[in-house]
Amino acid sequence: MKLERWNPSLKAGTILISVILLSFQYLVSLNLLVFGISLLLLLFCSDARPRQIGAILIPAAVAAFGLFVMGLYYSRGSSITDSQLSSISAVPYAVRAAMSQNLYSALQLATRLLAYAGLGILFALSTDGEYFISSLMHQCRLSPKFAYGILAAFHLMPGMIREFRSVRTAFAVRGVHAGALSLKPIFTMLVNSVRWSESVAMAMESKGFCGEAPRSYYAVPKVRWADWAGSFGCIGAIIAGMLFLRY
Amino acid sequence: MQREKALQLEDLVFRFQEKGKRNILDHVSLEIEAGGITVLMGSSGCGKSTLAAVAAGLYPENGGFLESGDIRLFGRPLKELNQQQRAAYLTLMFQNPDLQFCMNTLRKEMQFCMENICVPPEQMDEKIACAAERLGVSELLDRRLHSLSGGEKQKAALACLYVMESRCVLLDECFANIDRSAAREILELLLRMKQEGRTVIAIDHQADLWLDAADEIILLGEGGRVAARGICRENLAAYRPVFQEQGLFYPQAPERLYPPRPAGDPVLSFRDVSIRRGQTVKKKWSRKPEPDEPFLLRQASADFPRGCMTAVLGPSGSGKTTTFLAALKQYPYTGTILLNGRDLSRLRPRELYQQMGIVFQNPSNQFITQNVEEEICASLRVWDRQMPEEACRQRADQLLESYQLGRYRKYSPYMLSQGQQRRLAVLSVLAGGQKLLLLDEPTYGQDDRSSRAVMQQLRQKIEDEGLTVIFITHDRALAAVWADRIYELCGQKLVERAPEELCL
User: Fold this and answer.
1) Nearest CA to CA, how far is A118 from chain B (Å)?
2) Which of A127, B229, B278, B428 counts the highest number of beta carbons within 10 A?
3) Model pTM?
4) What is the CATH number of the domain that holds B420?
5) ipTM above 0.95?
């Protein structure tokens, strides 16, 4: 089964529960397994492009490495005291630190971050935004007013980006230097956006959209037994890992 | 037998602030018969768009205060209907084609519209196919809406209203952002809808496109009250004074107000300039756009003479604005562009912008402060950093006064009307003493009186200060009336045209 076909609400729920479960354990092997399986699933059971996966993983890997180094050098409560460490002066500090239990706790932290990252991209790269929102509407009773509001705002994005570019051009031509982080073009763009959202809301209303009245649906995302099986399988596997894995 | 009334408004009084003094709609009474095409005309700010929103029940629900009045759609009081039921009688199409959709393709948008009025899902596919066929938008169904041209977007918007089968469609300046050929195509679709027995009410400030199609033209005056009605092609001439009184375009062949000025030496010259279509404005690290994108300009040459007004014509989406951006070094090009005989590529941006300014189609994008006076001061300071505070303020007030903007000194620029915003933008752009001004659609969304004011002021500046103006427009009449030299962007070239060639 493709990951894309997994009901997005169930998928989101499963991943949320998995993340919470993972935060209660300290198993390096489980973390690595979760991360690895997420990647394999993405590569072989979804339409996500390997490039995209790589692009998101680079910052995650950097953060994990940072956490690892931090955990290695600066964690408290290591089994060897500082005085003992400094007494074996023949061994470099890094090695001494690594010999201590710090290595294990550093690995715990770093791999946990990787596991989170794996689960995160598993959801993000295999889920269509519109399908997710429509599923939230039907499976989680999100009100249509909200759901279509989010969709409309989402579809305004390309326009807003275009607008932002033209504001920056206009500023440059007026001799006003607006840096990458300058708030001025953002302010101008926001003034426009407020107006836009009003117009879009009125256009939607004039087409008969009102939040409360009953409406028909062209397509209703369904929850099949395979969706439930996938969810229970994932959560079950993590619980099993927590119970049976040692390190 | 008396025909059914599609829309009945009785003694409407509407304003935006409950305690405010100015009524946008002031005792408006109006009845429109079902089954025809009716055009409501009025000058900018006379309240015609507000009238449309009130008639559809969008105001006061989204803001404003309705003091009195009774609205009926096909005989049924609006108050008794909810949004869903109203849509069966009346739906609206808006001026800005970008801001009418909530989904990302036309097919999904049409599904959304039908879901709103509870059409059973099994009928939707058939209805969509049928409507798309009828309006000739089948090939647009699955394209991304934001990648469509303005005219295509308006067609898509109309297709949505069509598929909802509402008995009356109300179009709010739906031709304002699109060129004439696209407007004609939409007009054709509206005639088809009329044949099917639907009512069309259009709001516009130009009558010429509607003359053949409209059953009746109604002129709205101050406060949205009816100034004259029952106008059609046959009796149009009798109403000419009313058109003029209301500051509206009277449909006629364009008449020149100024003799053309003799062409001086070129300020800006294009030599074999090629520009490709691309998604992004110039990026610093890659000056070349995608090589396989189609050409907008291909080895085009043109001269823009000093002290003259030059128009650049072309349908929307043909690359007029991009051409301007290239001249401002904000878009990559190949070939040579000369400014006062110097190659553009050798000029530093600051030097360049000290000689040349631009006012965009949407002037509210270029305001950098939240106060009209401050806006001019900021501009003066950009170009003369040593200018003392007091002198700067005085000069700004002087400039504002000369453009009749003095009394708006303390306003926010965003609160001004379209025409005033454009005048303010011109002022702030020219504050550094620039001698070359580029304007993108200077009369966009404005009535006759206001566009005349903008153009006249520019003309005056040309006479007095030797300013050079180049403007982009899709309005051929505007170019024929005001420009000394006219280029048309067609077939990837800039072709020079004589004003007489453009007369309609």
Assistant:
1) 29
2) B428
3) 0.85
4) 3.40.50.300
5) no
